[in-house]
Amino acid sequence: MDVNKTDITIYFKKDENMEIRKSDYSLEEYSMGKVKNAICEAYTTAGEECQESVIDSIVNNLFIYEGMTTLELRRQVENGLMSINKKVAKAYIEKNAENESNRKEIKKTDDFISNYFKASNAATGSKYDSNANVSNKNVVTMGQELYKSNNIRQNRYMITDRLAKKYSKKLAKQYLLDLEHHVLYKHDETAIPGMPYCVAITMYPFLEHGLTKLGGQSVAPTDLKSFCGEFINLVYSVSSQFAGAVATPEFLMYMDYFIRKDYGENYLDILSEKVEMNKKGRTLEQVIENYFQQVVHSMNMPAGNRG
Questions:
Q1: Among the ranges given (68-77, 146-155, 226-235), the one the predictor scored with the smallest mean pLDDT
Q2: Neighbouring C-beta atoms of residue 87, cutoff 10 Å
Q3: Residue 237: which of 183, 269, 201, 289 has the closest Cα?
Q4: Contact predicate 35/16, CB 8 Å
Q5: DSSP line for 158-178
Q6: Largest Cα–Cα distance in the chain?
């Protein structure tokens, strides 16, 4: 049977005008320069001299066709390098494996961000810590979620490494198995590696020096208003260095001190008196309640150091 010539015609283009298909299925114009640079980088990584004549020989023997995948392109380069220098071929393979791993990690992160935005709340959006003390999801809480998988891996490595050195590799391996099968539960594995958990602080240095001893600019508070404002910054500053809660047992005692300083020792007897001469004309009780609300509401706002 005769076959029409047009049925078996293959249309060739110049290499530089062809499109290749990337791992995400998008098309990109084939670049001989990129391939040469990747090969030369492999030679440099392997500690070998990058000879242009050798690179040209490899590139010119590649069979490039329309729609070929980057995986196929790399396979041909790997084969070419293997026939010339196995050390360089290994460096090329390892570099591509690293890039591929990075691409997969980025894709996984991108998928998580999309799913987090679609989630009904912070708990359902969380992949690792759904019982965290967060009620509303936003870009801050999402940012905290992004790196929890890395933190878990690092925390587990630190503990298993210590177990292996102090006891045995067998015990370290068993520890991981018990975690994975929920025999053990490691509290707050998602926290930054090495970060301590809860803390209770004395506020006396804060009354003496403000936030200056913590690297801040605020000096010691002088009245009720500055005390409440600086106290909020104090808690945020300390909580950024701890994974758990920050306790300030002296808060109410020191708040009482500044109320007495501003309104007198017998302020409890004048709670119903108007102490503001502005348009609001609030009573002392309302003023105290307002400052207390300021502190409580600020403590419950999502922040970059909590999530």
A1: 146-155
A2: 14
A3: 201
A4: no
A5: HHHHHHHHHT-HHHHHHHHHH
A6: 113
Query: Tens digits of per-residue pLDDT, 134-149?
Result: 666 776 677 777 778 8
Q: In whole angstroms, what is the distance from residue 225 CA to residue 262 CA?
A: 10
**Paired residues of 28 in beta bridges:** 20
Task: State residue 283 phi and psi, 5-degree precision.
Answer: -80, 170
Q: Do 222 and 228 contact (CB within 8 A), yes or no?
A: no
Under 8 Å between Cβ of 23 and 71: yes
Residues 6+ away with beta carbon under 8 Å from 54: 84
The token pair at 219 is: 């000096």
Q: Which H or E run contains 246?
A: strand 246-247
Q: Is 222 helix (H, G, I), strand (E, B) or coil?
A: coil
Report residue 304 CA to chain centroid gap.
11
H or E segment to which residue 106 belongs: helix 86-118
- Report yes or no on whether pTM surpasses 0.70: no
Give the C-alpha separation, 101 to 155, whole Å. 21
Tokens representing 281?
Answer: 């004309």
**Sign of dihedral through CA atoms 226, 231, 234, 240?**
negative
**Residue 3 — very low, low, confident or very high, per pLDDT cuts 50/70/90?**
very low
The DSSP bridge pattern shows strands 19-21 and 27-29 to be antiparallel
Note the residue count of the chain.
Answer: 307
CA-to-CA distance for 260 and 283, rounded, in angstroms?
15
